[in-house]
Amino acid sequence: MQRNLDRRVEIAYPIEDPKLKDEIIRTLIKASLKDNVKARVLHPDMKYYYKNGEVNAKKVDSQEWLMNHTIKASGIYSKSKV
User: Fold this and answer.
1) Which residues pair with 49 in a beta bridge?
2) Which residue, among 48, 53, 22, has the nearest Cα to 36 in the 3D structure?
3) Residue 50 and residue 53: Cα distance in Å, rounded?
4) DSSP assignment of 6-36, as one string?
5) Could you tell me which residues are beta bridge partners of residue 42?
6) Residues pairing with 38 in the sheet
7) pLDDT level of residue 50 (50, 70, 90 thresholds)
8) φ, ψ for residue 31, nearest 5 deg
9) Is 48 helix (H, G, I), strand (E, B) or coil?
10) pTM
11) What values do phi and psi take at 75, rounded to 5?
12) How far apart are CA 26 and CA 66, in angstroms?
Protein backbone atom coordinates (compact mmCIF):
# COMPACT_ATOMS: atom_id res chain seq x y z
CA MET A 1 0.00 0.00 0.00
CA GLN A 2 1.38 3.39 -0.94
CA ARG A 3 1.49 5.96 1.84
CA ASN A 4 1.38 9.72 1.43
CA LEU A 5 4.53 10.49 3.40
CA ASP A 6 5.85 13.30 1.19
CA ARG A 7 2.81 15.60 1.21
CA ARG A 8 1.49 14.87 4.69
CA VAL A 9 1.59 17.30 7.60
CA GLU A 10 1.45 16.03 11.15
CA ILE A 11 1.25 18.03 14.32
CA ALA A 12 1.82 17.20 17.98
CA TYR A 13 0.83 19.15 21.06
CA PRO A 14 0.51 18.42 24.78
CA ILE A 15 -2.80 17.34 26.26
CA GLU A 16 -3.06 19.07 29.60
CA ASP A 17 -6.66 18.35 30.60
CA PRO A 18 -6.49 15.29 32.92
CA LYS A 19 -9.97 14.06 31.93
CA LEU A 20 -9.19 14.26 28.23
CA LYS A 21 -5.80 12.62 28.74
CA ASP A 22 -7.45 9.74 30.64
CA GLU A 23 -10.09 9.31 27.92
CA ILE A 24 -7.40 9.15 25.23
CA ILE A 25 -5.45 6.52 27.17
CA ARG A 26 -8.57 4.46 27.95
CA THR A 27 -9.89 4.52 24.40
CA LEU A 28 -7.48 5.33 21.61
CA ILE A 29 -4.27 3.89 23.01
CA LYS A 30 -5.66 0.76 24.69
CA ALA A 31 -7.85 -0.11 21.72
CA SER A 32 -4.95 0.34 19.31
CA LEU A 33 -2.67 -1.86 21.39
CA LYS A 34 -5.30 -4.62 21.61
CA ASP A 35 -5.91 -4.67 17.84
CA ASN A 36 -5.14 -8.12 16.45
CA VAL A 37 -7.05 -7.84 13.17
CA LYS A 38 -5.50 -4.97 11.21
CA ALA A 39 -2.50 -4.00 13.36
CA ARG A 40 0.91 -4.24 11.80
CA VAL A 41 4.41 -4.16 13.27
CA LEU A 42 7.44 -2.56 11.62
CA HIS A 43 10.31 -5.05 11.54
CA PRO A 44 14.05 -4.33 11.22
CA ASP A 45 13.86 -5.07 7.48
CA MET A 46 11.64 -1.94 7.24
CA LYS A 47 8.61 -4.00 6.22
CA TYR A 48 5.31 -4.12 8.01
CA TYR A 49 3.87 -7.47 9.04
CA TYR A 50 0.51 -8.26 10.59
CA LYS A 51 0.70 -8.44 14.35
CA ASN A 52 0.68 -12.06 15.48
CA GLY A 53 -1.75 -12.72 18.28
CA GLU A 54 -2.85 -15.73 20.23
CA VAL A 55 -4.48 -18.39 18.05
CA ASN A 56 -7.81 -18.52 19.91
CA ALA A 57 -7.87 -14.87 21.02
CA LYS A 58 -11.00 -12.78 20.56
CA LYS A 59 -10.68 -10.66 17.40
CA VAL A 60 -10.25 -6.95 18.16
CA ASP A 61 -10.48 -4.43 15.32
CA SER A 62 -9.58 -1.08 16.92
CA GLN A 63 -11.18 1.03 14.16
CA GLU A 64 -14.49 -0.79 14.47
CA TRP A 65 -14.33 -0.69 18.28
CA LEU A 66 -13.65 3.07 18.26
CA MET A 67 -16.55 3.75 15.88
CA ASN A 68 -18.92 1.75 18.09
CA HIS A 69 -17.54 3.44 21.23
CA THR A 70 -18.14 6.88 19.70
CA ILE A 71 -21.72 6.00 18.75
CA LYS A 72 -22.46 4.68 22.24
CA ALA A 73 -20.78 7.66 23.94
CA SER A 74 -22.79 10.13 21.84
CA GLY A 75 -26.06 8.62 23.04
CA ILE A 76 -27.58 8.79 19.56
CA TYR A 77 -28.90 5.22 19.58
CA SER A 78 -29.66 4.95 23.30
CA LYS A 79 -32.80 7.07 23.03
CA SER A 80 -36.05 5.13 22.76
CA LYS A 81 -37.72 5.07 19.37
CA VAL A 82 -41.14 6.69 19.09
Assistant:
1) 41
2) 53
3) 9
4) SS----------HHHHHHHIIIIIHHHHH--
5) 48
6) none
7) confident
8) -65, -40
9) strand
10) 0.60
11) 80, 10
12) 11
